[in-house]
Amino acid sequence: MAEIKEAAEVLGGLAALAGSPQTSSKWRDVPVVIAALQEFNECVRYLNTRRSDGAILRLDAEAAVQDALYLILRPWIPDLVAETPTERLASRFTIRDFVSKELRLIIEAKFVRDKQHGKAITKELHDDIEVYRHDPLYDTIIFFIYDPDSSIPDERELRRTIEQSRVYDGRTFNCLVVVKP
User: Is pTM, for the whole model, over 0.90?
Assistant: First the structure.
């Protein structure tokens, strides 16, 4: 019964957001993407505990996390494209994990390998923001961080420093964070 009530609240909240005249169409879709990402653990658990010898997801590297994310997000984001190189910036380029031009959205997957990487993840996210903020095609980045051993020392501080709207040259760039498990 609690699950039904929770689902009704989420759907009611999404309906209210969709009906808001101040909300652009791309922002109406971002909560759906976030909701799908929140179900990451449940989707992986389902595949890994099935009775059949079907797909088993071994989430032991960033590429495996990216594969799981693609399977979860593709039904919700029809124009989702994987691994798109950025333009060269200051003699380097990076590869965006996923993009949606329609939603003006970048999704970056991170796999926290150990305690040292957990401590350094904030710098890595800030570096990504610096690169991606220059791309005029995108105005939102969602960082999906898979932290299997809870190696991020202070998730609340990570969210405080990353999860915000920034303005660069008069253009807003929004950053969101989802940490699992």
Answer: no
